[in-house]
Every structure is written in C-alpha cells, then in structure tokens.
Amino acid sequence: MAKLRKGVFGRLNSFINNHIIIKSKNMSLFEMQKRMLKIRFVEESIAERYSEGKMRCPTHLSIGQEAIAVGVCANLNKDDLVLSTHRAHAHYLAKGGDLKKMIAEIYGKVTGCSKGMGGSMHLIDKSVGFMGSTAIVGNTIPVAVGMAKGLKLRNKDAISCVFFGDGATEEGVFFESLNFAIIQNLPVIFVCENNLYSVYSGLEVRQPKGRKIYEMARSMGIEANHGNGNDVVEVYEKMLKAKDNISKDKGPQFLEFDTYRWREHCGPNYDNDLGYRDESEFLKWREKDPLKNVLDSSEFKSYIDSLKDDICEAHLFAENSKYPEYEEFLEISGIKK
Ligand SMILES: Cc1ncc(C[n+]2csc(CCOP(=O)(O)OP(=O)(O)O)c2C)c(N)n1
Ligand SMILES: [Mg+2]
Fold first, then answer.
1. Could you identify which of 166, 167, 276, 317 might form a hypothetical disulfide with 194, taking C-beta atoms 3.0 to 4.6 angstroms apart as the criterion?
2. How many CB atoms within 10 Å of residue 13?
3. Which domains does the chain have, with CATH numbers?
C-alpha cells in the first residue's frame, strides 16, 4: 500500500492507485475519494450559502475531517447502525444518507430526513441505518451501546458504530458505556475523532500531559487502536480489522483517529484570528489535507462537475420545499396519533 501511495504523482501509478481494491474488496480507493469529495463540496456549499439566512440552524462542519467518516463507513453495510454527534454531515453522507434530504433538513423543511424538525445536528435516517445525531456531547455513545445490545439479543449479523469527538471522552457516560459494552461483549465500535479541540479549549488544558485517549480506553479492557485520521486508507484498514475482531468474538472495539477541523467550531467561517489556536498549526494540518492530490486530479473532473450540479439541485429542492405544519410536529412527536 505504501509503495502504491508513493507513486501517486505518476499518471500510471495514480491510475493503479485509484482503482485498487483494498483488502476486503468492499470499496476501491477511487470510490472513497469520490465520497470524500462529495462531503467536502457539500459542506463548502453550506458554508458559502449560510449567510443567506435560509439555513436557520447552527452548523458544525467537518471540512478537513472527511477521511474518518468515509474510511469507517466504507466497511459498514446497510444493516450496520451508525450514531453521530453535532458534527454529523460527513457521517450521514458516508453512511449512504440522501443529499437532498440532508440539505432540506438543514433548511428546516418537511422534506428533510428529520422532517425539518431537527436541523443540522439532529439527522436521522433509519432507511440507511443512520440512527441519529444529537447536540448533547457524548449522549449518543450509550444509545449506540444499547443498540448493540439489541442487535446481540436478536442475533443480528450487524454492528453498531458511534462517532464522537475528543471532548466526549471527558463525559462520565463515555466510561459507563465502554464498561457496559466490555462486560456484555457487545458488537459496537467506538470511533473517536480527535481534532485536538473542544470548542476553544485544546486538549492540553483539558487532559493531563501525555495521556493518550486510546490508551486510556485500552486500560479499561477494550481492544483499542490509533491512527492517522487524514489518511483514508489507514482509517479503512483499521476499521476493517476492528470489524473483523468483532466477528471473531473479540468484543467491542475502540478506534482513535487524529485529525483537525479547518473551520470555526460552529459556523461557516475560519476563526484562527480568535487566538485559541494559531495560524501555523492550522497551516500544518491543512498540508495534511485528506484530499491532497485528489482535488486537482483530472481523473475526478467529470465527477466534480456532476457533483456540483447535484449540490445546486439539492439546495433548490430544499428552498422549494415546505416548512412542516404544526399538525406534523404533533404527529412526529407522538402527541397526536
Ligand atoms: C453535555 C454537553 N456539554 C457541553 C456542550 C457544549 N458543546 C457543544 S460541542 C462541544 C465540543 C465538543 O468537542 P468534541 O467532542 O471534541 O467534538 P468536536 O466539536 O471537536 O467535533 C461542547 C463542549 C454540549 N453540547 N453538551
Ligand atoms: Mg474535538
């Protein structure tokens, strides 16, 4: 794999590299790169249009972090369940979520995946096994564990997988959930996207020096691994192994991936001027763009062109859709049957 990656600049090697099928034969690198491009362009379109004031919910963008969602979800089947966080767009799209339904949800329209009542942070689409995302840090972790318990009780050949940030590992429920999953030997994969920050607080002011999140998890008795979250192949292979471990009855798995969010914590802008992190750190991470050499590769040109059309269409669809009626709210909330 490393040999192939080295030759990525050469045209022939680039062709081979983009069309290789990685170990499990689940998905080619080319397909994963297309998925990352989709997430990048969709989120950039959200950032670009946000100031129009039509998307009236907070949005947390994953620009710079796309490889984790894609590398993880490339190993998941439709029946596998995913739970997510306030930063959910990449996870939703990578799990096969519908672009129009996601954009409509962000516009608060009834055609959205949560019928326009959730917004960006509350995406749900059971038809693709995307079981929900919420704004409360850490709170989908126990839900994922509960779902894994349900899968096990029903003898399902599927797993549950939950994405969360480094900040969520500071919530008490994180430890309770891991402990319960270990004790009960549940088919769940915990995926920590470590982007170094919880809003404006760096890890260095939140956790003791030298602590590694995956080592802390491992010390609780769970098999834990760590990798470069900006390398989609590495993420893919670590996830493949974790899933394989579950099928060999090695219990729940924990994965931590290093990455970096490029934009502000919440919203469409850059915020390096605020002073909680410096420009040089941002530039260092931007050099490690998971889409480096992909964005300007001629191989993706026609895909990008059609993607841009799809994205425009999705925004138009959202703008032309209706807001939910009060009656619909009563129905979905279970107040009125
Ligand atoms: C229980 C709880 N505490 C605090 C917040 C406010 N809050 C929203 S996002 C966030 C940061 C979470 O950081 P992390 O888990 O690392 O995710 P990231 O935003 O970096 O993706 C915080 C503290 C919240 N929503 N819920
Ligand atoms: Mg974080």
1. 166
2. 15
3. 29-332 (3.40.50.970)
Average pLDDT for the chain: 93
Distance 320 CA to ligand 2 centre (A): 35
The answer to whether 191 and 229 are in contact (CB under 8 A) is no
Residue in the block written with tokens 């984790």: 68
| Beta partners for residue 254, in sequence order | 190, 224
Question: For the packed helices 301-320 and 29-49, what is the interaxial angle rounded to 10 degrees?
Answer: 40
Q: Is 168 in the pocket of ligand 1 (CB under 6 A)?
A: yes
Q: CA-to-CA distance for 29 and 246, rounded, in angstroms?
A: 24
Query: Is 197 near ligand 1, meaning CB less than 6 Å away?
Result: yes
CA of 73 to the centre of ligand 1 (A): 22
Whole-number pLDDT of residue 329 = 83
Cβ-based burial of 82 (10 A; exposed 0-12, middle 13-18, buried ≥19): buried
Tokens of 307: 């993607």
Tokens, residue 270: 């850059």
Average pLDDT value for residue range 41-65 = 98
119-151: buried (b, 16+ CB within 10 Å) or exposed (e) per residue? bbbbbbbeebbbbbbbbebbbbbbbbbbbbbeb
Residue from 143, 159, 38 nearest 94 by CA: 38
Q: What are phi and psi of 29, to 5 degrees?
A: -60, -40
**Degrees, nearest 5: CA angle 176-188-234:** 115
pLDDT of residue 27: 86
The answer on pLDDT for 219 being more than 70 is yes
Q: What is the largest CA-CA distance in the chain?
A: 62
- Give the amino acid at 299: E
**Residue 176 corresponds to which amino acid?**
E
Q: Which residues pair with 201 in a beta bridge?
A: 198
Query: What does the DSSP assignment read for 15-79?
Result: HHHHHPBPTTTS-BHHHHHHHHHHHHHHHHHHHHHGGGS-S-S-----TT-HHHHHHHHTT--TT
In the chain, count H helices and then E strands.
13, 8
User: Which one, of 137, 206, 204, lies nearest residue 172 by Cα?
Assistant: 137
